[in-house]
Design a protein that fits this description.
The chain is of the alpha+beta class. It contains nine helices and 22 strands. Helix 3 crosses helix 9.
């Protein structure tokens, strides 16, 4: 059994031990989205050992992650390109020490001096791996694929890279989280790698026999005044393009859940509902189903991963085209982090709005993008990808360099 410790004690051990995961919900001071990691304000654990590239063991509590590139063995696919990240396909820890807070405010403060300095002592520049013209051309290529009937929708992303890493990833995580409290943030240490995630999106939750997925499709920036903010929310709610994106992904998720759920049990209790977050409004739908008896965590993931909101439709063909178009293997980006307990219940997020640190290469990465439909305007899609990346980079003290 893991030893339960306070959050401050857990953070000390996280600096000392090679593996650790901390999951944080929005608590009472965050987004309007009402779903947390069950009832926890935070839930974390650390370990000296890890289980890598194997499915989790049953009948014990474990934290873990799934890399997007797990799609290759699951779907019989290959990645044409290499990844700048080098995370395993999946990893699990049974914590030696664990910490949890229930319905508590999570607001850990660090002195500003510990937050403003990266290793270089300067504000790092994050450079896109492709220039604006290339990205616009890729959007047009996706629109051509849609015109040809190859895909109906495709999630196209780009990568940003900084030749620097923060002096203290833990301090930086809480510094950003205090500004951006969201429902599915996560801090992960995996040997020389760090993940600082500020995701608003749930991939999949199992509670008893009930499965819940909450895909996000549709994003718009917050307004500077109450009137402008309401106009922005209304614009998103009535956007034909964003509604089309959301409905297509909901249909894909319904199809994924139907493979492992009782016939007729898959429902959509919330369709295209707009929620407000610190920097953006987003359109979120909720899809639920009753899991068939005998279905395991492995079989559920094999049927539903990766999440449709980060691929497109049809899913397999979209993944093939993504690998060709993006020019890099996503690795952990658009994968998932979460936990599975001894009863087989679990909750996993979608890895977006994240920073990926590598202490060996001394580099930090960020990724962003969006769903492309035939109605997409290349310039608008390019700006939306920056809208998603730039606030996080700025909160981290970085500068996004446009090309």
């Amino acid at each position: 059994m893991p030893i339960e410790v306070s959050l401050s004690e857990l953070l000390v051990k996280l600096r000392q031990m090679p593996y650790g995961v901390l999951l944080c919900s929005s608590g009472n001071n965050g987004a309007s989205f009402p779903s947390d990691y069950e009832t926890f304000s935070w839930l974390g654990g650390v370990s000296k050992v890890a289980r890598i590239d194997q499915w989790p063991e049953t009948n014990q509590f474990q934290f873990g992650f799934l890399s997007y590139d797990l799609k290759n063995p699951l779907q019989g696919l290959n990645s044409k390109y290499n990844s700048s990240l080098d995370w395993p396909l999946m990893g699990w820890i049974s914590p030696d020490f664990i910490s949890k807070g229930v319905n508590q405010t999570l607001n850990i403060d660090f002195t500003p001096s510990s937050l403003s300095h990266w290793k270089s002592g300067e504000n790092p520049h994050f450079f896109p791996k492709v220039n604006r013209t290339t990205y616009l051309d890729k959007v047009d290529q996706v629109r051509n694929l849609i015109r040809q009937g190859t895909v109906y929708e495709l999630n196209l992303c780009q990568a940003f890279e900084a030749n620097d890493i923060p002096t203290d990833p833990i301090s930086l995580f809480f510094h950003i989280r205090n500004q951006k409290p969201v429902s599915f943030s996560a801090l992960v240490k995996w040997e020389h790698r760090w993940l600082l995630c500020f995701s608003p999106e749930r991939f999949l939750r199992k509670s008893g026999s009930k499965l819940t997925s909450q895909p996000i499709k549709g994003t718009i920036g917050r307004g500077q005044s109450l009137e402008q903010d309401q106009l922005a929310a209304n614009k998103l709610e009535n956007s034909e393009k964003d509604r089309a994106e959301n409905v297509m992904i909901v249909d894909l998720v319904r199809n994924d859940l139907a493979k492992v759920c009782e016939t007729g049990s898959v429902q959509v209790p919330d369709l295209m509902k707009v929620y407000s977050f610190p920097t953006v409004h987003q359109m979120i739908s909720t899809v639920t189903g009753s899991l068939k008896k005998g279905e395991s965590f492995e079989s559920v993931i094999q049927s539903c991963f990766p999440m449709g909101s980060m691929t497109g439709a049809p899913k397999r063909e979209a993944m093939i085209q993504i690998d060709e178009l993006e020019g890099f293997a996503r690795n952990l980006f658009s994968g998932s982090v979460g936990y599975i307990n001894a009863d087989g219940n679990f909750d996993f997020n979608v890895l977006i709005r994240s920073l990926y640190l590598d202490e060996r290469t001394k580099k930090t990465y960020c990724f962003a993008g969006g769903a492309i439909t035939y109605q997409s305007e290349p310039e608008e899609e390019y700006e939306e990808s920056l809208l998603k990346a730039e606030p996080l980079i700025q909160m981290a003290g970085g500068i996004l360099k446009r090309t």
